[in-house]
From TrEMBL:
This is DUF433 domain-containing protein. Pfam families: DUF433. InterPro entries: DUF433, Homeodomain-like_sf, WH-like_DNA-bd_sf. It comes from Spirosoma validum. It comes from the Bacteria.
Length: 51
């Protein structure tokens, strides 16, 4: 679990300081919305391969 949490970054210069994954412009909120909509991990990775 600690390895997963290490991927969440906070940077005021990226996405207006919202928590992002690995300091990229993909927010934790976006990921949670996709999961809540029913997408699987594999579907998300296929749609966002650069993450």
């Amino acid at each position: 679990m600690e390895n997963l949490l290490a991927r969440v970054t906070l940077n005021p210069a990226v996405s207006q300081g919202k928590p992002t994954l690995r300091n990229m412009r993909f927010t934790v909120a976006q990921l949670l919305e996709l999961l809540a909509a029913g997408m699987t991990n594999q579907e998300i990775l296929a749609d966002y391969p650069y993450q």
